[in-house]
Amino acid sequence: MYQDELAEHFSRINGDHPMTPADDAYVTAQFAELEELCAAEGHDPGSVRRTMLAGLLPLPGYLRSDGAEMVPRDLFALTERAGGPDRLEVWFTAHWADRSVGRREWEAYLSGQYVCLHSVSPATIQRKEQLTAAITAAPTEPDAGSAGWTARLHALIDELDALEPAFTTYDRLRFGGPTSRDVCIGAMRARYPRDVAIATES
Question: Considering the entire predicted model, what is its pTM?
Answer without folding.
Answer: 0.90
